[in-house]
Amino acid sequence: MSMHKDTLCIGIFGLGTVGSGILSILSQNEEVIFQRLGKRVYVKTICIRDLSKRRLFNLEGVRVTDDPSVILNDPEIDIVVEVMGGENPAFSYIKAALENKKYVVTANKEVISKHKQLFFECAKQNGVDVYFEASVGGGIPIIRSLKVGYAANKIQSFFGILNGTTNYILTKMDEEKQAFESVLAEAQALGFAELDPTMDVSGMDVAYKLTILAAAAFKINVGIDDIFYEGIENIHLEDILYARQFGYVIKLLAIGKRLSDQKVCLKVHPTMVPIGHPLAAVRNEFNALFVNGNALGESMLYGKGAGSLPTASAVVADIIDIGFDTALQNSRRNLEIEFLQENLVPVDQLSSKFYLRLSVADMVGVLEKVTAVFGRHKVSVANLIQRENDRGLAELVIVTHEVAESNMNHALGELRNLFEVQSIQAVIRVGLDE
Ligand SMILES: NC(=O)c1ccc[n+]([C@@H]2O[C@H](COP(=O)([O-])OP(=O)(O)OC[C@H]3O[C@@H](n4cnc5c(N)ncnc54)[C@H](OP(=O)(O)O)[C@@H]3O)[C@@H](O)[C@H]2O)c1
Which of 7, 178, 214, 332 is the most buried (most CB within 10 A)? Predict the structure, then answer.
């Protein structure tokens, strides 16, 4: 990288939602960026897949290609921006860029989650770095906050709402009393949800993001296969309504906690959040991260987790940050090459409060049988509602005190085998237990 230049020369892979947002910001905020950085950001080349597609942008002065080597082998390009998505070929382009001593900025959670260690090592060997602010929480500066803003703290725990689609769906179910399927269809029509929403509703998208936060907050290297994640497919309107009665809002949370020295828990699941908690107020497509630091105490970052300009805001901030970084030469604060050997505690060794909704036979003695099962497995009931419905069945809605997950699993197994229990409609973890 040439230190004396008064321009930062960049090459971009991808000109979709995020790529076009980057061009907008660089042109709209050109002067602000120049004043802050003291250099101009010059987009030299953009690599896309389909050259025949019509582009809405004025791409005058930019070389547009479908040949990746035009960017990867250009000695003038200082920073490679990857906003294509997917694991491949993003992985090989990022690796090649680092090997060619180019800084990399990416918005791609999947490729960072899977290959972070290799990227960080490769960056270090080549005296450059890889930045990925936009991969978690879109425009909210979460990674930079964890690495820089909270740098003086030991992070004790964090709780994130990191998927706009699922938060939008849960908010609409809650506020408009609509079923999951109808809200999902509406969200798809409005463009808030993908036509194939599996990645979002299954919790997998949040799981990728959690592994990236785990690296930034706890310096541990895990993949999504190492962590427990559960989505919102089985959240019914009834549960959202009962949650309100008990004083909670259901949110899909990414949770990271230090349990004791060198033990960490990482998990993603729908959680009943107390109505008064700041995370309960995060509505619609907004994202947030609630952090507990041992010096700062509680704080929360909030904002738009997706969209063209919000996501590009984080990408351009990374570009500017690299501009500062290269001016200082040796300050590569983003490098995370030495991961710690923390022990990830499996979810069945944790404990939690639970909300359960059971459909049971409407007959005498059912409650006694259910509570007997609970008694055998040390599950104690904090709150209970019993309600008849019109099909000769009754609904038992229970919130428990804290109980070991393994005990709860055994109790659920026994309940499933009880003749009087027709089905277990919902099992949702309750509270944040900070
Ligand atoms: N959209 C968001 O709100 C958001 C938020 C946070 C993070 N991100 C992440 O940002 C990345 C980009 O998302 P996006 O929404 O901008 O995607 P997108 O709208 O689908 O755009 C993808 C772009 O990449 C290009 N591309 C795909 N494969 C390519 C290949 N093999 N070689 C060269 N170019 C290729 C496409 O080219 P053509 O135009 O020729 O098809 C297109 O311009 C993803 O990793 C995503 O997860 C997105």
Answer: 214
Strands 40-47, 63-65: pairing is parallel
Which atom, in ligand 1's list, is nearest to the CA of 108? 45
Q: Is 14 found in the same domain as 160?
A: no
Atom of ligand 1 at shortest distance to CA of 49?
Answer: 40
Q: Is 114 marked active-site?
A: no
- Of 209, 267, 304, 353, the catalytic one is 209
For ligand 1, atom 32: residue with the closest CA: 49
* CB of 18 shorter than 6 A to ligand 1: yes
CB within 8 Å of 230: residues ≥ 6 apart: 203, 268, 269, 270
DSSP β-ladder status, 155-161 and 286-293: antiparallel
Distance from C-alpha of 132 to C-alpha of 105, rounded to nearest angstrom: 6
pTM: 0.95
Do 148 and 125 lie in one domain? The reply is no
Domain holding 397, by residue range, is: 349-430
Q: Is residue 61 part of a domain?
A: yes
Task: Between 47 and 334, name the one with better pLDDT.
Answer: 47
Cβ of 134 below 6 Å from ligand 1: yes
Q: Is residue 343 part of a domain?
A: no
> Would you say how long the chain is, in residues?
434
> Looking at ligand 1, which residue's alpha carbon is closest to its atom 14?
17
Residue 338 in domain: no
Same domain, 16 and 113: yes
- For residue 337, being part of any structural domain is answered with no
pLDDT mean across residues, the chain: 93
At 354, which CATH number? 3.30.70.260
Percent of the chain past pLDDT 90, that is, above it, reads 84
The Å distance, Cα 27 to ligand 1 centre, comes to 20
Number of domains within the chain: 3
